[in-house]
Write a structure and sequence with these properties.
- With about 500 residues, this protein is an alpha+beta fold.
- Among the domains are: about 60 residues, DNA Methylphosphotriester Repair Domain (3-Layer(aba) Sandwich); about 100 residues, Homeodomain-like (Arc Repressor Mutant, subunit A), CATH 1.10.10; about 80 residues, DNA-3-methyladenine glycosylase AlkA, N-terminal domain (TATA-Binding Protein), CATH 3.30.310.
- Helices cover about 45% and strands about 10% of the residues.
- Strands 5-9-8-7-6 form a 5-stranded antiparallel sheet. Strands 3-1-2-4 form a 4-stranded mixed sheet.
- β1 and β2 form a beta hairpin.
- The longest helix is centred in the first third of the chain and has 19 residues.
- It is globular.
- About 5% of the residues have low confidence.
Length: about 500
């Protein structure tokens, strides 16, 4: 994000919540950086400077404010105002790419030199890749201190510090207090929710949780996912270990509450990042709405639901199989087939390790089948066509052998070519998967029957004419697709 000092200053003076998470205010006289909504006495303009990211403020020598808690700011839009390389780099860092490797290895994965990568990060984020990773780790640890009753060792391991000593040293260096002292003076009440562990997930406002639930409810795989009331829940496998995740609105405005059951602390950061991607919490939704409402065909939907998001994926392989099942049939029909597949080939919630979940599981009963299982499955008598059975087998084999990976930091074009090389996977499936798995904001399944109906009610539209019209929606065509589907509803 390229900062405009005049805009930032006006937002700071107004404590404008629309800019929360989009920039940070550093106060030269105190050495502290804050969110633009910080309630403390307003410092003089001559004493403040603005940073595009918390990492940039931290790298410049400022420490986080204990009053407004920068670690609780909505996530900075991961792709807004940045190059494709930076966007992919941020996602790899969020997935732990710098935990056991360096910037040179990260740059190699992105296909650039480490010098060029550092230059891009400095230009778009104002900070180095290492500073971004360190600040993210620190902020996550601070949230765990404030919002949970985990031990210091558990917090250190969950945030990726490797040792309690390293964890303590970083907090003393940054906050000039030990982690225990910070927890003692925390303004929140740490604790667990029921038998699980709960964390708050901030989001860019506005966020239409009801619309997200409606979308997920129609596509929830029986046994694996459940939407009940204002709650979404699903089974997950992390590091081979089974668990359950629940998401519901938090009592505090601007947050969702994520409760995890039977998930090891070392996977908390991973599941937190996955949840943010799956629920599209960091999208620059105001900018997207401002652009799309200029099109008269989308204006009504954008006006009614400016917080409409593009749901992501908890598991890329699972969603791609679900997309194959949904080719040329109704959403309800695809959901039925997915449920049959899961109940025949998925492992039971009562898993091979003998772990019995002492949590209210509702209709959750299975885990989605692994690629190795489906690669050899006959899938007979399930109602799935022979052609789609073979496509799922080929996808499963390619995934098991590492030829297809569902890393959201991939270059979309290269991924699309590999995926479409599998017989039975065409442009619609590729674009749909790019929307939800790669989180490509410009992916657009132009041949989708629903989109064709929505763009020209009562008339016959073609994918060619739709694609031409959609050019004006770049780079947010995926969000335009959601609004068109919304119009059908």
């Amino acid at each position: 994000m390229l900062l405009n000092n005049k805009i930032c200053e006006r937002a700071r003076l107004a404590r404008d919540a629309r800019f929360d998470g989009r920039f940070f205010v550093a106060v030269k006289t105190t050495g502290i950086y804050c969110r633009p909504v910080c309630p403390v006495k307003m410092p003089l303009a001559k004493n403040v400077t603005f940073f595009a990211s918390a990492a940039a403020a931290s790298e410049a020598g400022f420490r986080p404010c204990l009053r407004c808690r920068p670690e609780c700011a909505p996530g900075s839009p991961a792709w807004y105002g940045s190059s494709t390389t930076v966007r992919r780099g941020l996602r790899l860092i969020a997935e732990g790419a710098l935990e056991n490797s360096d910037v040179t290895q990260l740059a190699t994965r992105l296909g650039v030199t480490d010098r060029h990568l550092r230059r891009l990060f400095k230009k778009h984020l104002g900070a180095s890749p290492t500073a971004v990773a360190q600040t993210g780790r620190l902020h996550f640890a601070k949230r765990l201190l404030d919002e949970t009753s985990l031990t210091m060792t558990q917090v250190a391991m969950a945030a990726g510090y490797g040792s309690v000593r390293r964890f303590n040293d970083q907090f003393i260096k940054t906050y000039q207090r030990t982690p225990r002292e910070l927890r003692k003076h925390s303004q929140t009440n740490p604790g667990n929710c029921g038998l699980g562990l709960s964390l708050r997930l901030s989001y860019q406002k506005p966020f239409d949780w009801n619309a997200m639930l409606r979308f997920l409810a129609g596509r929830a795989t029986p046994g694996v996912e459940e939407v009940a009331g204002d709650r979404y829940a699903r089974t997950v496998l992390l590091g081979g270990q089974p668990g359950i995740v629940e998401i519901r609105p938090a009592k505090l405005a601007g947050f969702l509450t994520m409760t995890v059951h039977a998930i090891a602390t070392e996977h908390l950061l991973e599941i937190s990042q996955t949840a943010r991607m799956a629920l599209d919490l960091d999208a620059p939704i105001q900018e997207i709405a401002n652009m799309l409402r200029q099109d008269k065909r989308l204006a009504a939907s954008v006006r009614r639901q400016p917080g409409l998001r593009v749901p992501g994926a908890w598991n890329g392989f699972e969603l791609t199989v679900r997309a194959i099942l949904g080719q040329q049939i109704s959403v309800k029909g695809a959901t039925t087939l997915a449920g049959r597949l899961v109940h025949r080939y998925g492992d039971l919630l009562s898993n091979p390790l003998g772990l019995r979940y002492a949590v209210p599981t509702g209709t959750l009963s299975h885990f989605f089948p692994a690629p190795a299982r489906l690669a050899k499955a006959r899938m007979n008598n399930l109602g799935i066509t022979t052609r789609r059975v073979e496509t799922i087998r080929q996808l499963s084999k390619a995934t098991e052998q590492g030829e297809i990976q569902f890393n959201s930091a991939q270059e979309p074009g290269e991924f699309s070519q590999r995926l479409q090389a599998i017989p039975g996977i065409g442009p619609w499936t590729v674009q749909y998967v790019a929307m939800r798995v790669l989180k490509d904001p410009d992916a657009f399944p132009a041949s989708d029957l629903g989109l064709l109906k929505a763009i020209a009610p009562g008339k016959k539209a073609t994918s060619k004419t739709l694609s031409k019209h959609a050019e004006s929606w770049r780079p947010w065509r995926a969000y335009a697709a959601m609004h068109l589907w919304n119009l059908l509803g």
